[in-house]
Design goal:
The chain is an alpha/beta fold and 266 residues long. Helix content is 39%, strand content 14%. The structure holds nicotinamide-adenine-dinucleotide. Nicotinamide-adenine-dinucleotide binds next to helix 2 and helix 5.
Length: 266
């Protein structure tokens, strides 16, 4: 969500604590790593000794990660998560190393459009990026984890996974679908040592488009939006994501964790 505080809340490499080394020796795939929550998650994993496969549709956004002191532990892959060949390239870039974690973070919004103003193009693109992408990449990664020694998958859901008044129709449906993907996979693979959880962020200062493209939605959703908790920095969400990726949460599987300053109890 872009707002005036975004500048001061941007994640910088200095924001991350290097004391803990929860990801030492581990390889973690992070999608959407070029901006916002994905970038903050990649920086946190790097600060804690991990190797990051940083995936984004924009290669320019990934170049900063390569030039960091820990850049030798970053593999950047320009990939569109909706493209099956790109997903194959992501998995191939890892070589034979075990994949310890996958953070499905890349996502797009729908301009808060209501159902009757949602055309097929918007619907299909939001579903492709927010649902098909995590489905395809998780399918590829879980196959590797099943053949190895398990792992952790974290999907980024949304407050729109939990309620009907946080976004437009396509985005709300896509983020509800991510909850289904999370719970189904958590059940199916928990016995194989693969944990699958989701984080549901509230408002976060990132590069994501937060503007209303619909007068109708602005009037219906606007009053609720004015009551939500303060906008968080992306590190607040990466803290939740990395906890679920790490062994600290080893007894947690199939949860949808609101990381929203308490919005979900309003
Ligand atoms: N910012 C918020 O307020 C908020 C709230 C709830 C949930 N989320 C979710 O958090 C996730 C991250 O969003 P953000 O706020 O950090 O946004 P962001 O726009 O700052 O970052 C998203 C990144 O994903 C990349 N991306 C977009 N489409 C892609 C594709 N097809 N393939 C590969 N990469 C692609 C973009 O290039 C961008 O770098 C999204 O899933 C979003 O729905 C965000």
């Amino acid at each position: 969500m872009t707002n005036s505080t975004a500048e001061q809340m941007t994640a910088t490499p200095q924001n991350f604590e290097e004391g803990a080394q929860r990801f030492a020796g581990q390889t973690v795939i992070v999608t959407g790593a070029g901006s916002g929550i994905g970038r903050a998650t990649a920086l946190q994993i790097l600060a804690e000794g991990g190797r990051v496969i940083a995936v984004d549709i924009s290669h320019d956004r990934l170049s900063e990660l390569e030039s960091m002191p820990s850049g030798e532990r970053v593999v950047t892959v320009r990939a569109d998560v909706t493209d099956e060949q790109d997903i194959k390239d992501v998995v191939d870039s890892i070589g034979d190393s075990p994949i310890a974690g996958l953070a499905n973070i890349a996502g797009i919004t729908d301009g808060h459009r209501p159902l009757h103003e949602t055309d097929d193009e918007i619907w299909q693109r939001v579903m492709a990026v927010n649902v098909d992408g995590p489905f395809r990449l998780t399918r590829a990664v879980v196959s590797r984890m099943l053949a190895g020694s398990g792992g952790a998958v974290v999907n980024v859901a949304s407050e729109a996974s939990l309620r009907g008044n946080a976004a437009g129709t396509a985005y709300t449906v896509s983020k509800h679908a991510i909850v289904g993907l999370t719970r189904s996979a958590a059940f199916l693979y928990g016995s194989e040592g693969i944990r699958v959880n989701a984080v549901a962020p509230g408002p976060v200062a990132t590069g994501i488009e937060g503007a209303f493209a619909s007068e109708y939605s602005q009037q219906r959703l606007g009053p609720f939006m004015r009551m939500i908790p303060p906008i968080a920095g992306p590190e607040a969400i990466s803290a939740s994501i990395t906890w679920l990726l790490s062994a600290e949460s080893r007894n947690v599987n199939g949860v949808v964790l609101p990381s929203d300053g308490g919005w979900s109890v309003q």
